[in-house]
Write a structure and sequence with these properties.
- By secondary structure, this protein is mostly helical.
- The chain has two domains: about 80 residues, RNA polymerase sigma factor, region 2, helix turn helix motif (Rna Polymerase Sigma Factor, Chain: A), CATH 1.10.1740.10; about 90 residues, Arc Repressor Mutant, subunit A, CATH 1.10.10.
- It has nine helices and no strands.
- Helix 2 packs across helix 3 and helix 7 packs across helix 9.
Length: about 180
Amino acid sequence: MNDKDIVALYFARDERAITESDRAHGAVCRSVATGILRDPRDAEECVNDTWLKAWNAMPPHRPNSLRAFLCRITRNTALSRYRMNHREKRNRELEVALEELDECIPAPAEDREAAPLVEMLESFLGGEDELDRRLLLGRYWHGMAVKDLAAQYRLTPNAVTKRLGKTRERLRVYLNERGYSL
């Protein structure tokens, strides 16, 4: 079943929408949640929360990309759960990653302000070489540790850190040139 058909099920209030969403996009949503939470049970709860939030959001919202819409819900839900789980015992790795990204990408105040930012990010990522794109997404979207990225791509942690720093700087400049700055 394609994404348009799944969205139509949501609009028809047909419960098969959840089953079809899980079949089509459950694996990537679980990957996003697990990357942030590092706990399969918490990740599974996040994905279940994603289906409920998607059910409540459609209608009236009709996403252009169901996969991106569901991943964004999953990521935001996982980050909220992560913050709740680590209020006292912080995982510095993810905190540092989020702080690094805050230096070049301002958080939009509202969802409608996010659309131009999303387009600019997609355009920027499309112009980056594959390794830099994978490192950036692994670190800041999936919440992977630098040492894990280094092992996955057969680099030193120092090389990963430097590449990420240079990519963040290119992103900051790219966004500034297009009028999107801190």
